[in-house]
Amino acid sequence: MEEVDRPAVCFKARDGKGAFSKCCNHNASTDDGQAIAELRAAFGEDTISTDDEDLHRHGYSEWSSINIDQLPVAVAYPKSTEEVSQLAQVCHKYKIPMIPYSGGSSLEANFSAPFGGMSIDFTFMDQVLALHADDMDVVVQPSVPWMSLNDQIKDSGLFFPVDPGPSARIGGMVGTSCSGTNAVRYGTMKEWVINLTVVLADGTVIKTRKRPRKSSAGYNLTNLFVGSEGTLGIVTEITLKLAVVPQETSVAVVTFPTIRDAAAAASKVLRAGIPVAAMEIMDDVQMGVINKAGSTNRKWKEVPTMFFKFSGTKAGVRENIQLVKDISKLHKSGNFEFAKTAEEGKQLWSARKESLWSMMAIRREGDEVWSTDVAVPISRLPDIIEISKKEMDDLGLFASILGHIGDGNFHESIMYNSKDPKERAAVEKCVLDMVDRALEMEGTCTGEHGIGLGKKASLQKELGVDTINVMRSIKGALDPYWLMNPGKIMDAKA
């Protein structure tokens, strides 16, 4: 494997207003300039941008836990797989890094540019290319938002069930193998991708497999690229499975005196085989944040609260709501509300839907929110939440807990003063401690956000050097110059 030089990456705290440090280094080298000129000659001036604001938007994110003193040197706006292939050929020729960009909503600096390079923005690749309703699948480009996809195909009676944050787009969802509130019923992104069209580092275009629902032909290249965060190739087309829209959907909200009581109820619901569509938990702090932000049209009790979704036949939904209510009573539940109409369902689910936005809305001048996730075996979820909450309280941090309690995945959102180095250090310690606890409990450092820049050391701790070296070998075979989103997931050997 060819070794690459890695520049020192200077991590800087944000200033609380979304402004990036003016000392960012994104001056183009001679090779960069030649590549940009060649690409502009091929595609036109408007396809390749070097505008300062454009570079800033593609190298910095207020959502990210880490921002760095480096921006891309240019942003490309391809319109087809063929154009992405041409871009890759030129970048490969001049050894320029390539960073795919779709929604820009990732949380672990997944689209940052620690080595400069070319950000490849799929804004103009946002089409639903083909809907095969009888086959229950759809072919899309990477910049299609998942919510827009569901809106476009709603008349078919089908939907795409993976539901991360509302700003996520399919390309980024593939990159991190994300999930969302529906994961307890429908699983994660990798379960819903049939095949991918991928542009490799040298511009070669491959398709990972054909379109049937199942295939045992050769290596599972589809799942190799899903979750690879653009480090192995650039995904330009995605074929997704679809599910049938349930006849009936309803929501229930139930309060508990403690997180442990709620987790015990969740475990019983799962063990009873009740097919809930979603099962989420928010702690007392997060419920208070919802109230303070005023982002819903009601006041909520500021206690640990579980949010359930039910879907199926009308009779099945009614039966499952009653079963969950009965189980909840055995675990000290308080109020149990369930929606009798679709509008009531939207109102009850609104607190869950607005959780992160509410945390962002109550920031004071100079405040930032660090949001990160881990996942553990379901039986250990109350342990890690209780210990993590105690540490945050002991450090005097304002932090909330939100969890996909049905699959052991939870998120910490910690508010801190970005201008206070001690407070930033306390947050970093809290996050690292939470990750270490998850690993000690046979969990993972991330359930759905991905590794990006932020969790590379944790990934090595989780998997071990030998496993990381296997990943490096795969990366080196497909991308010998380490041009594809370099610096993410793992580094080249020093």
UniProtKB/TrEMBL annotation:
GO cellular component, one term: mitochondrion
Keywords on record: FAD, Flavoprotein, Mitochondrion, Oxidoreductase, Transit peptide
Any single biological process term in GO: lactate catabolic process
Enzyme class: oxidoreductase
Alphabetical list of InterPro entries matching this protein: FAD-bd_oxidored_4_C, FAD-bd_PCMH, FAD-bd_PCMH-like_sf, FAD-bd_PCMH_sub2, FAD-linked_Oxase-like_C, Oxid_FAD_bind_N, Vanillyl_alc_oxidase_C-sub2
Swiss-Prot/TrEMBL cofactor(s): FAD
Record-listed E.C. numbers: 1.1.2.4
Residues in coiled coil: none
Keyword Cell inner membrane included in the entry's annotation: no
Gene Ontology molecular-function annotations: D-lactate dehydrogenase (cytochrome) activity; D-lactate dehydrogenase (NAD+) activity; FAD binding
Subcellular location(s) of the protein: Mitochondrion
Pfam families in UniProt: FAD-oxidase_C (PF02913), FAD_binding_4 (PF01565)
Reaction(s) the record says it catalyses: (R)-lactate + 2 Fe(III)-[cytochrome c] = 2 Fe(II)-[cytochrome c] + pyruvate + 2 H(+)
Major subcellular location class: mitochondrion
Domain of life: Eukaryota
Domain (FAD-binding PCMH-type): residue spans on this chain: 68-245
PANTHER family with a match to the protein in the record: D-LACTATE DEHYDROGENASE, D-LACTATE DEHYDROGENASE, MITOCHONDRIAL-RELATED
Family membership noted in the UniProt record: Belongs to the FAD-binding oxidoreductase/transferase type 4 family.
Protein name in UniProt: D-lactate dehydrogenase (cytochrome)
Species in which this protein is naturally found: Ascochyta lentis
